[in-house]
Amino acid sequence: MELILWRHAEAEEGSPDDARALTKKGQKQARKMADWLNHQLPERCKIVVSPATRTRQTADALGRKYKIHPLLAPGASAQDLLDAANWPNGKEPVLIVGHQPTLGRLMALLMSGQEQDWDLRKAGVCWLTPADDKAGACQIKAIMTPDLIVK
Q1: Distance, CA of 141 to CA of 127 (rounded, Å)
Q2: CATH number of the domain where residue 37 is located
Q3: 137 — pLDDT class (breaks 50, 70, 90)
Q4: pTM of the entire structure?
Q5: Among 19, 48, 78, 120, which is least packed, fewest CB within 10 Å?
Q6: Number of structural domains the chain divides into
Q7: Which of 33, 78, 80 is nearest to 55 (CA)?
């Protein structure tokens, strides 16, 4: 099972936090990453998204169906994300559209075995795949940010 982590694009400041929308720059970042993802993701990919406005707007750029999952809201734990993805028991790849610092902590947990404060840039993607040599371990298949995409 592959796990793809996508941090929401740049959002406006303000409150309430869960109602913050993407900025114009964030909308552009989301479209750019969505275009890249649509060329990489398999047709059968489960997509789960935080209920926050900025994550839904980021996911909307994909033009694919997704499920809003309350476990992915800001303040979620790395374990919440694993539960929402049904990791590692799922049969298909899962794309999670979520928030820092949880996405970074999940990356660290899956790569090193312990939660640490790793960073995933706004609109960035980290694509993880199970490692062949260790049960439960992962390896990075790809890391991509909008500024690395050349058109």
Answers
A1: 5
A2: 3.40.50.1240
A3: confident
A4: 0.95
A5: 19
A6: 1
A7: 33
